[in-house]
Design brief:
Layout: H1 6-14, E1 15-18, E2 24-27, E3 30-33, H2 39-48, E4 58-61, H3 78-94, E5 97-99, H4 109-115, E6 124-127, E7 141-144, H5 147-156, E8 158-161, E9 165-172, H6 181-192, E10 200-205, H7 207-210, H8 214-222, E11 231-234, H9 238-244, H10 253-264, E12 276-281, E13 288-290, E14 298-300, H11 313-326, E15 341-344, H12 346-349, H13 352-365, E16 374-377, H14 382-390, H15 393-399, E17 403-404, E18 425-428, E19 444-447, H16 450-459, H17 465-469
Parallel strand pairs: 3-4, 3-6, 4-5, 6-7, 9-10, 9-12, 10-11, 15-16, 15-18, 16-17, 18-19
Antiparallel strand pairs: 1-2, 2-8, 13-14
Length: 473
Amino acid sequence: MAGRTLYQKVWEAHEVRRLKSGQSQLFIDLHLIHEVTSPQAFGMLRELGLRVAMPHRTFATVDHIVPTDSRQEPFADPLAQAMIDELRKNTREHGIELFDVGSGRQGIVHVVGPEEGLTQPGFTIACGDSHTSTHGAFGAIAFGIGTTQVRDVLATQTVAMPRLKVRRINVNGKLQPGVTAKDVILHIIRTLGVKGGQGYAYEYGGAAVEAMSMEERMTVCNMSIEGGARVGYVNPDETTFAYLKGRPYAPADDEWEAAVEHWRGLASEPDAEYDDVVEIDGSAIAPYVTWGINPGQAISIDEKVPDPEAVAPEEAALVREALEYMKLKPGQPIKGQKIDVAFIGSCTNGRISDLRAAAEVVRAGGGRVAPGVRALVVPGSEQVARQAEAEGLDRLFREAGFEWRYAGCSMCLAMNPDKLVGDEVSISSSNRNFKGRQGSPQGRTLLASPAMVAAAALAGEVVDVREVLGVEA
């Protein structure tokens, strides 16, 4: 009999029952909520006369709509204030812990969960946010849910879910200097397509993934959803355990060894069978930039924008649409593309290691943000901000002409004052380059790593970060 994958082990341990629909009723260990997708769910509970079933398993923060340029209340946007006030009321009423603004623990939900030690191997984790796949970096089965499902988890601590197939993605070899986890996941999405993961959980492995830090693994798992996969995860190992040890909600010292032993046993077994296996040569990956209107429309810094006449017929229409929207010409190099805005932050790349990587580029490049470029650095949480400020990164960025902001989602999705104007071109360390994603219906977004974003901010155009860092391509 073949060995089992982590996905199988966790799913089977949490399956309450099989429903007539063929879905599973799945118990949820950890439920994360924020101010945007929870008010309606709490309203549904009231209409049904229900209470939150297990409030100790739900944790809340404010991130999407909270402004990052000011913390003074009432906020300028009355909708933002109303949503945050509603979350405060709901969490008080139901006894749910809230990481509120100014608590020292507020931040983007997918940054706060791991740094608090709430995210743990073997957990099922749900949140009303598509990038919940981030938490899979810890060997958890984590996924985004809709508002009615948020209601279901609040009311029953379970959710109805179809069981997924599992694709193993091996990223082999060693990443070259200047190449990051963001480049790896953009390469994977480009290779397999934005719909390639539909119906799958992605299990990431191979030497390049095993060598990644937890924060790098979170970046890879975060964008699994952009490749169509509902879930992305990495098997827990010593890197996982070292990250979790001593965090507020991690197992206490007297429980630690037993927890680690349990976590080790969750990893996929060497003889586990997968529905599909993909091999990627990590040593051949270069720094990436998106050129189009979905994350799969990405190329390495040395490549040129595609020609619709040279792609498969079924892809040509979308390529033409993207070129027209992005105002690019077929065969144009992405290197040298002028930018108006540089954004470093988001649940993909707003952690301390991301800010350190960007700061390294600023030090290496010298000078200041290019004239006419607006550059923002938005920490993923108040804890990240404190750490960065303790290391002097805020001062470094400010002196170079970047704006240093409070924690929040910021320009990733622009449900706050941080927006593009007109048809500005943004280079962003976030996760989506959809039309209008960053707040303007005509705004254009290039996705890249924090290091690439910092390099472009200084140059005023897309450049190869390896040249700035003085490493060989």
